[in-house]
Amino acid sequence: MTSPQLEVKDLRKSYDDGRIEALRGVSLTITAGEYVAISGASGSGKSTLLHLLGGLDVATSGDVLYQGDKLGTTVNLDEYRANRIGFIFQAFYLLPTLSALENVQVPMLAILGDANTRASRAEALLREMGLGHRLKQYPNELSAGERQRVAIARALANNPTILLADEPTGNLDSVNSARIMEILTGIQQKRGMTLIIVTHENDIANAAPRHIRVRDGRIVE
Amino acid sequence: MPSQLSFTGFACKNLWRRRLRTLLTLCGIGMAIGAFVALVGFSRSFEHEWERLYSSSGTDIAVVDKNFMNTSVDQKLQDKLRAVPVVSMAEPMVFNIMDVTPDVNALVFGWLDDSYEFSSLTFDSGGRFHNGKPEIILGQMLSKSLGKKVGETVDLQGTTYTVTGIFQGGTALEAGAIIMPLDQMQILTSQQGKVSGFHVRLKPVPAGESAEHYMKRAQAEIEAALPGLNAQAAADRAANNQFVGLAHAVAWGTSCIALLMGILGIANTMAMSVFERTREIGILRAIGWKAWRVMLLIQVEATVLGFTGGFLGIFFGWGALELLSKLPQTASVVSTSLSWEHLVEALGISVLSGLIAGAYPAWRGAHLSPVEALRHD
Q1: What pLDDT is stored for residue B337 in this prediction?
Q2: B3, B16, B287, B371: best to mutate for the A interface, most A CBs within 10 A
Q3: What ipTM does the predicted assembly reach?
Q4: What local confidence, expressed as pLDDT, does residue B328 receive?
Q5: Residue B134 lies in a domain
């Protein structure tokens, strides 16, 4: 039996002194290399779950385990985000003062000492995303689809084992959405990475081999 | 070779994106450091002129009472002083500051007419005064300010003095000074028989003895011969007299206030910058930057502001000293020469100011919750 890469045990997250419960006892396991879609209505708790899986936030109670080690105690959250996780956001979140090439180098500043290696790796990743001709462009000079491809390259910069995407096509038209999904699934297969996508689009959710639905802070199926 | 992003380059780009604010902050810290460079430079230049006042006349030791302003030393002690074996020459002197006119202040010295200290003066016109006569000589700069020539008279506190000479001083302080016979100065200050102290020229350093050791020995011998008086090396006396001390205190006090304003300027800029970049900080934390690295980024930005502001300040300060050295009111005590030590000190203070100012914004930025920061509008 394959051991789980991520294990979630009775995870609860509340805000406003417990008045708002975003997650109400979620448990699940995800194995390495899995492609999982998490869907649900707005406010269902799917993004909160993704943030907890990615070590961006801490749970009110319950545990997230990475390869059997508890996040936040055995596993340092900063190290985990830097080395194991690649985040992709709906709003891209590129740094406006940096070119595409420089944006992809930013995560590597946290772990890679050699500037040449950082720059070469960033260039290779952008070429892989089909942006070899847009290296020096700034975010405001790129289309939405191109920005998201830069963001994907940035997420891959530190060679993570898990890719977490929060509504990655939410700001894109159908053509660009299809292109981004094609890239993400291609990366997942080619690199054997775990891909967890939060989406409210049924087409995307249903296309994933595993589809988790969240409603009112609970997994419903 | 693809373009590389360095940590410092990233920090500089963050500053460059808000050019106007960065420029205004640089002006703020630049003015503060400029005030420091100019004021402390002014006070050090003042101290330097005092040193030259002694060195140009060949004075090695000043023998004074504990209080420089207190002219309570008995003039008769000069005979005892001259009898000390290491003493070559010892001259009694009185020193004070006087309002010559409502607008012009001057240093006033009382000397004997055969004092060895005349050797540091070069007469443009006329010559020495005579003991017992109401005569004075004027520094060249002061004679210009007063519009007085040799043979004309100057009224000081109700007494009329004849100008017997106009001299070029060995120092800028002397160029703006009045020198008169010791006895006339004692009458003018109602301190007959009393002097401010004695200026001593030592005999040459004996062979086999170091200059430093000889100076210490001479001081000890003089103090033993004249109990209750201090024999201070001329350089120490220049650095420690009340006028120089006051100038240093005013310079540092004013500079500290200016530096505080500069620090607040950088702190405000960095706090605003952190607030505006809350989401970006969240992104950095999300992609694995540790809290200390975010803190370091903000501190590097503040340090770059401090460092650049320091250079700007040195330029401002040098400009201010240039201006002061040309104004008649301050030309006598201001030199535009800035020592490397002073410039490094200014730059160090500026960088330190940046670090202090950036500390709280950096701490705040580094401790933002990543997910809260990402939600920030």
Answers
A1: 72
A2: B287
A3: 0.90
A4: 65
A5: yes
pLDDT at A1 over 60: no
Locate the chain A residue with the closest alpha carbon to B18.
Answer: A97
Assess contact for A219 and A211: CB atoms under 8 A: no
Q: Do A110 and B293 touch (CB under 8 A)?
A: yes
Mark which of B169, B196, B228 sits at the end of a domain. Answer: B228
| List of chain B residues with pLDDT < 50 | none
Whether A78 and B291 lie within 8 Å, measured CB to CB = yes
Given a contact cutoff of 8 angstroms between Cβ atoms, the answer to whether A214 and A45 are in contact is: yes
Whether residues B324 and B220 fall in one domain: no
The verdict on residue B2 lying in a domain is no
Residues B75 and B223 in one domain: yes
Q: Which residues of B touch A (CB under 8 A)?
A: 1-7, 10, 13-14, 16-17, 279-280, 283-291, 293, 369-371, 374
What residues contact B259, with CB distance under 8 A and at least 6 apart?
B32, B33, B36, B349, B353
Q: Which of B228, B257, B275 delimits the end of a domain?
A: B228
Tell me the two tokens of residue B70. Answer: 């207190």
What pLDDT is attached to residue B2?
Answer: 66
pLDDT tens-place string over residues B215-265: 999 999 999 999 888 888 887 777 777 677 777 788 788 888 878 887 888
Dist. CA B295–CA B308, nearest whole Å = 20
Residue-level pLDDT at B338: 77
- Structural domain span for residue B188: 66-228
Region of B151 (left: φ > 0; alpha: ψ -120 to 50; beta: rest) is: left
Q: What's the half-sphere exposure (Cβ side, CA atoms, 13 Å) at B273? A: 32
The reply to whether A98 touches chain B by the CB within 8 Å rule is: yes
Examine the domain organization and report whether B208 and B78 are in the same domain. Answer: yes
The answer to whether residue B58 is domain-embedded is no
More confident residue, A65 or A3: A65
- Tell if the CB–CB gap between A109 and B10 is shorter than 8 Å: yes
d(CA A86, CA A156): 6
Note the pLDDT of residue A215. 93
Note the pLDDT of residue A84: 94
Give the gap in angstroms from C-alpha B303 to the nearest C-alpha of chain A. 19
Is there a contact between B292 and B256 (Cβ–Cβ < 8 Å)?
A: no
Task: Note whether residue B1 is domain-resident.
Answer: no
Contact present, B132 and B183 (Cβ < 8 Å): yes
The whole-number pLDDT of residue B232 equals: 86
